[in-house]
Amino acid sequence: GLPPLENAQVEVTVEPGQIRIVRADMDIGASPVSIAGNVLHDQGQPRITATIKGSKVLLARSTDALIRADVDLTLQGRTNALTVSGDVALVGGRLRSPVEFQGLLSGGSKAPKAVRRGIRIPAFGPDTVKLDLKIRTSEPLALQGRIARGKIRADLQLVGTAAQPTPIGQVFFDPLELAVPAGTISFPTGLIRFEPDSPDIPRIDLVGSTRLAGYDITVNVDGDYDAPNVELTSS
Fold first, then answer.
1. I want to staple 20 with a disulfide (CB 3.0 to 4.6 A). Which of 3, 38, 52, 66 is the partner?
2. Strand, helix or coil at 27?
3. How far is the CA of 221 from the CAs of 47, 150, 200, 210, 226, in angstroms?
4. pTM for the structure as a whole
5. How far is CA 165 from CA 70, 139, 228, in A?
6. What is the pLDDT of residues 66-102, one digit of tens each?
7. Are 189 and 171 in contact (CB under 8 A)?
8. Cα dist. 148→137, 192, 211 in Å?
9. Do 135 and 144 touch, CB atoms closer than 8 A?
10. Which helix (H) or strand (E) holds 105?
């Protein structure tokens, strides 16, 4: 499921107890990536220190998403306890909406907290890989869903492990349009906040408007993602 790796040019030096990556240049998903660093193997599990830099690297390609990013990452630690840190700047692409806006507009689920379901990022590695990543957008992503169309920006920290990545921070909508049977609700701006104490059930804040049968209607949606408050006013 990984993008193709092509045109690799690698230069390494082998020394007692160490393999040094002088340079490793390659194309991943038709985008340039460079790696440098070293691997110490004097005793126990090998210890890695490396940097990975790339431009418009393909991170995801499926029916649900096409995401590229400029990456500037650091890998440190032993092979059984790696930490990945650095900066991921998203550069456009598309994403099928992970938010079920139909449920939001109806007030969401009223299930007890023990069985509530929120937003989870899929696993992309083992739980031995720790994350400390800054996720931001250089170019907004196009949001696509059954009723949703718009643009999103991210200002997030991705922590936890590769097996259970946890977002902390905010995702902005600007703008967002929802197609409902009565017409289209336009949200000029809005946001989803991922709080440290409950990152998989974020807080949502949307204020939109529509016009129906001569009435200007304001739609205010706020609260927990899976059980928000929905308020309608008209004039």
1. 38
2. strand
3. 49, 17, 18, 14, 11
4. 0.83
5. 19, 23, 24
6. 899 999 999 999 988 999 999 999 998 998 876 767 6
7. no
8. 20, 15, 18
9. no
10. helix 101-105
Q: Cα separation of 142 and 177, whole Å?
A: 12
State yes or no: pLDDT of 117 exceeds 50: yes
Residue type, 107: G
For 35-66, the DSSP string reads EEEEEE-SSSS-EEEEEEEEEEEEEEESSSEE
Q: How far apart are CA 95 and CA 228, in angstroms?
A: 23
Tokens of 213: 């049968």
Rounded to whole angstroms, the Cα distance separating 33 from 54 reads 4
pLDDT, residue 181, reads: 79
CA–CA separation, 48 and 82 (whole Å): 8
CB 76 within 8 A of CB 37: no
Q: What tens digit of pLDDT does each residue of 157-171 get? A: 999 999 999 999 999
